[in-house]
Design goal:
The protein has a five-stranded antiparallel beta sheet with strand order 1-2-3-5-4. A three-stranded antiparallel beta sheet has the order 6-9-10, with helices on one face. It is built from eleven helices and eleven strands. The longest helix is centred in the C-terminal third of the chain and has 22 residues. It folds into two domains: 84 residues, Phosphorylase Kinase, domain 1, CATH 3.30.200; 194 residues, Alpha-Beta Complex (Aminoglycoside 3'-phosphotransferase, Chain: A, domain 2). It is of the alpha+beta class and 284 residues long. This is Phosphotransferase. Keywords: Transferase. One of its GO terms (molecular function) is transferase activity.
């Protein structure tokens, strides 16, 4: 499989070199898929990606991602997008508590244009039931080594109907700080939209607030997002952060880097037990 993937990456790079011409220098731009590249011709620099999110043009028009310059379809069916290269940096984890992060995410979640477009592309809504089914695609350990995984799944299953919320929005679904880019003019962008889905906004908010914003700052952060903190939102975010944490552990494999995973298992156990003191200790 690795040799096949390497062959695909090399072939895709050659296609792009033929598309751009010999004056352009092409380099991979990180990531494991091999679908992102930077291209330079003198002072000109582009960010190229194969098979980007279909609504990249709308994201560009609303200033959520760097400006889309052109789109081309290759003979093999791949679609190549070229965006303006941003001379900037990824946000540090502590910077996600800034009001401008909350304001941009709030604008995304309130965009009816993005929502209407994604509904036409992505027909399945990521409801709690759908997310529970997604967990079942992973292999739970059969020897009961980590009973907290089963306890967390039972927690989610028992509460799925109580947290159902039909105010669906476009969720980015990967609030990792590395996806937030700030350019030299202090412009902020949220990139990597390949996993976007229609879902409860708490799917995004749960990670951003639980993992990046101190709890005493949640009310102020949500004011910049333009939402009041209430018990219903807290309950939904709690359900989704348990889901995110369980999904992350299962995706990594319970036996991979066991010391690191054990930290996350303790964090998950504290979330399920709803012990704020233990959760805060582990987050620190």
């Amino acid at each position: 499989m690795e040799n096949l993937d390497t062959h695909k990456k090399i072939k895709r790079k050659k296609w792009l070199e033929n598309l751009l011409g010999r004056d352009w220098e092409l380099e991979t731009a990180g990531g494991s898929t091999g679908e992102a590249f930077s291209a330079r011709d003198g002072e000109q620099k582009l960010f190229l990606k194969c098979n980007s999110s279909p609504f990249l043009a709308v994201l560009s028009a609303e200033g959520i991602v760097p400006k889309l310059l052109w789109t081309k379809r290759l003979a093999n069916g791949d679609v190549i997008t070229a965006q303006r290269w941003v001379n900037g940096r990824k946000l540090k984890p502590m910077e996600l508590k800034q009001p401008k992060v909350a304001a941009l995410l709030g604008r995304i979640h309130r965009s009816t244009e993005l929502l209407d477009l994604l509904k036409r592309i992505e027909t399945q809504v990521k409801t709690p039931e759908v997310l529970l089914q997604q967990l079942c695609t992973y292999s739970f350990p059969t020897d009961q080594q980590s009973p907290v995984l089963y306890k967390a799944y039972d927690f989610l299953k028992a509460r799925k109907s109580t947290v159902y919320y039909d105010g669906f929005v476009v969720c980015h679904c990967d609030m990792n700080h590395n996806n937030w880019i700030m350019d030299k003019e202090e412009g902020l962008f949220l990139v990597d939209w390949d996993g976007a889905s229609v879902a409860d906004p708490a799917l995004d908010l749960s990670i951003l607030l639980h993992w990046y914003v101190p709890k005493q700052g949640w009310t102020e952060w949500l004011e910049a997002y333009k939402l009041d903190l209430n018990d219903q939102l807290l309950s939904r975010m709690h359900w989704y952060i348990v889901w995110h944490t369980l999904e992350w552990i299962l995706s990594k494999g319970i036996y991979e880097d066991s010391g690191y995973v054990q930290v996350w298992l303790r964090y998950l156990d504290a979330l399920v037990e709803n012990d704020d003191r233990r959760v805060a200790y582990l987050e620190d």
